[in-house]
Amino acid sequence: MNLRRSPTEIVNGRRRFLAATAAALAGLATARRVTGAAQSHPKTFVLLHGAWHGGWCWTRVAEPLRAAGHRVYTPTQTGLGERSHLMSPNVTLDVFIQDLVNVFEWEDLHDVILVGHSFGGIVVTGAADRIPHRIRHIVYLDSLIVRNGQSAFDVVPADVAEGRRKLAKVSSGGALMPVPDPKAFGITHPVDAAWLNAKCTPHPLQTYEGRLTVKNAVGNGLPVTYVAVKPDYAPTISVRQYARTRKDWNYLEIQASHAAMVDQPQAVIDILRGL
Amino acid sequence: MTAKTFVLVHPAWHGGWFWKKVVPLLREMGHIVFTPTLTGLGERSHLARPGIGLEVHVEDVVNLLKYEDLHDVVLVGHSSSGVVITGVTDRTPERIAHVTYLDAFVPDDGQAVVDLIAPERRQMMEALVKAEGHGWLLPRFAPPPWETIVRDMWGVTDQEDVRWMLDRLAPTPFGHLKDPVRRMNRVAEKVPRAYVRCRQFPNPRFGEHVRMAQRNPLWRDRGLAAHHHAAVTMPDSVAEVLVELAS
Question: Which of A55, A247, A263, B227 is deepest in the core (most CB within 10 A)?
């Protein structure tokens, strides 16, 4: 599979989803039953952060997983975290999906446990639509879930959408949603709050307005685990109701803030190691 | 031996993928390893656009150190990314314990990669950028096709390695090679450093860098009986020397 593009291809088609050769490989992955026997075998995890965050937020989950011998990738979306110097009006949901798909392609990843946190769940849905043969299991960690043609703002409560649009308007003329107080995620410990305050960056509003384009159903036939946090995080209420109706998905609940990888990393690790 | 934090910076046309064979060797030894991909290349190639140059690439790495809260970093560059790691050290020396130039360019303040290669090579690159790169992309290291470059110029001969590389090498925003570096921070100049020369790759400039390193007490120098792409052809030796220099 050739990832190399000529300068002309780069100039003409910046948002390219990689080629049919990859799709020709294995076809759709067949659903696999989750077994405990997988525990000692090294696995590959790709952990995708949500709005305002970056790959940095996974460190309390990623480092123990690596110490246990697993491969863990924590890409940062263009325009956020360590990529915040790249923020521009060109950063869209499709760029986010390409960011994620490209990690799989360039690092040649297979059999991946792909985790999407919060908004990252939408990006994960997009990636699963394009490269299902590289994914073993999807984990939606208190994620937003949208179907083809829907945007993030279609599935969060109306007052949440309006509030964020307003804050974006006031702070940056509508381009960027300012970073919320960590309390909004349920984070109260001063050390955790300080970390988030230092590292979160504004998030492009248009990724919440942008409609997801997928050809297949959410999850694309892959094994899915939805992990909901308790107490409830308001923006994901309707999504959680939907997730519970999916009899073909595992539905788990953990006592944690919405940013579970920050305040309850062991609970997240335990779920991931059990897959 | 304590665990170190390595940040390995790939050169032009490559991506974080370049270090694929070295990473597991370092991790097996208990070290933490980051292999950021520079904007416009590798997995970030969908972001390529005019205006990306050395400044963005330095920022890519500086921001990695900042957002991942990295300290006592062992910063490693290869070939053209010697200029990137020079810029990164200049910007944020307090986070860096050691800098290793692996068959890499070592620029002075205000120099770019193009200033450190023969004038004919520079002219050849500029002509390629104009003819095939829409004025801002350098499609290849030299005019011949990638397979010739990888095999004959960079000494990668294993068929699987060649295939893997040919699938991934990408045009580089020319700014990476032509933008001058800022190297003015006196604190940065005190960071210990080393030059590792891949002796099978003829390069007069790298020979000069070795002689500089041998004369300068801040520098150490090592040599590998390897070609330019030692990270691909002799990853064990590369991992070994990187760890030795970091200790």
Answer: A55
